[in-house]
Design a protein that fits this description.
The structure is a single chain. It contains eleven helices and no strands. It is mainly α and 264 residues long. The chain is globular. The termini are far apart. The site of one zinc ion has 6 residues, from helix 5.
Length: 264
C-alpha cells in the first residue's frame, strides 16, 4: 500500500510540475525574457521583479505542489473505498453533465477561494499562513503556487471536498486543473492583456483581471477574488481605484521607436 501511495504521489507530482513549468515557464519566457520590450507598455508595476523573490516563489511553488500531490493520494484511496464521486466511464453521465461538472467546479472553487482567502487575511491567521504568498509584492508567473505549507493544504483541499458530492470524470478534473493553473498564472503575470474598456461592459466586469490580483499583492487588503469579480462586488472589497488602474494599463499604447536616420 505504501509503495502504491508513493507511485501515485510521484505520478501526480510529475503532472503538477509539468503544469507549472508549462504555464509559468512559458509565460515567464514570453513576458520576462524574449518579448519584454514588446510588452513593456502592458507591465502593471514598472519596476523589475527582484531575482531573489523569483527564487523564493519557485522554491515555495515546487514545495506546494508536493502537498497538492499528497492530496492526490487522499483522492486516489478515497475513490477506492467509495468516498469520492469519480466516474471512469463516459457513458455513466451525459456529455452535457461533463461540461456542467467542469463549470460547477470552477464556480465552487471561486467561492471557496474567496472565503478561505478572506479567512487567511484575518490578523491572527495572516502571518502564520498567508504571508509567504504576499512576500511577492510585485509577483511573477512563478508565484502561482508560492504558498506556506498550511496554505497549500487549504488551497488543495477544494478538490477532495468537491468530489464528496460532485461526480467528475478524470478528464473533467484535469480540465478544471488546467483552467485553474492558467488563470492563476494570469493573475500573477505582472502584465495586463485584457482589452481596454472591458470593465465598462456588464459581463466583462465580472471577469477578474491580472491588474486585479496584482493590486491585491501590492495593496493587500482588497481584491480577494479568483476567477470572477462577483464576490468582490457583492462584498464591496474591490479597491476603489481598481477600474482606474485597469484602464491605465489596458489603454496604454506601445511607443514605436523609429530608427535614427543615417547621416551623410
Ligand atoms: Zn492574499
Ligand atoms: Zn497571488
Amino acid at each position: 500500500m505504501l509503495q502504491e501511495a508513493l507511485a501515485v504521489w510521484t505520478k501526480i507530482y510529475a503532472i503538477n510540475l509539468v503544469r507549472y513549468f508549462l504555464f509559468s515557464g512559458v509565460a515567464y519566457l514570453i513576458f520576462y525574457v524574449f518579448f519584454k520590450e514588446r510588452f513593456a507598455h502592458k507591465r502593471i508595476q514598472k519596476k523589475d521583479v527582484d531575482k531573489e523573490k523569483i527564487k523564493a516563489e519557485f522554491k515555495y511553488s515546487i514545495t506546494s505542489l508536493m502537498i497538492f500531490a499528497a492530496m492526490g493520494i487522499v483522492i486516489f484511496f478515497g475513490k477506492k473505498v467509495g468516498i469520492f464521486q469519480i466516474y471512469s466511464e463516459f457513458s455513466e453521465h451525459s456529455i452535457a453533465y461533463f461540461f456542467f461538472s467542469v463549470l460547477a467546479a470552477i464556480l465552487l472553487h471561486d467561492t471557496y477561494f474567496y472565503w478561505t482567502h478572506r479567512f487567511m487575511h484575518l490578523k491572527w491567521v495572516f502571518p502564520k499562513v498567508h504571508l509567504v504568498h504576499h512576500l511577492s509584492n510585485n509577483p511573477s508567473p512563478w508565484a502561482a503556487f508560492s504558498f506556506h505549507p498550511t496554505e497549500a493544504v487549504i488551497e488543495s483541499a477544494i478538490l477532495p471536498l468537491m468530489l464528496l458530492f460532485l461526480p467528475m470524470h478524470p478528464i473533467a478534473i484535469l480540465t478544471f486543473l488546467i483552467y485553474m493553473t492558467a488563470m492563476n498564472v494570469m493573475g500573477h503575470l505582472g502584465y495586463e492583456m485584457y482589452p481596454k474598456g472591458m470593465l465598462q461592459n456588464p459581463i466583462g466586469r465580472l471577469n477578474n483581471t491580472s491588474v486585479h490580483h496584482n493590486m491585491h499583492h501590492r495593496l493587500v487588503n482588497c481584491n480577494y477574488g479568483l476567477y470572477f469579480n462577483v464576490w468582490d462586488l457583492l462584498m464591496k472589497t474591490n479597491h476603489t481605484k481598481y477600474q482606474e488602474e485597469f484602464e491605465r494599463v489596458a489603454a496604454s499604447e506601445r511607443v514605436e521607436i523609429e530608427p535614427s536616420p543615417v547621416n551623410g
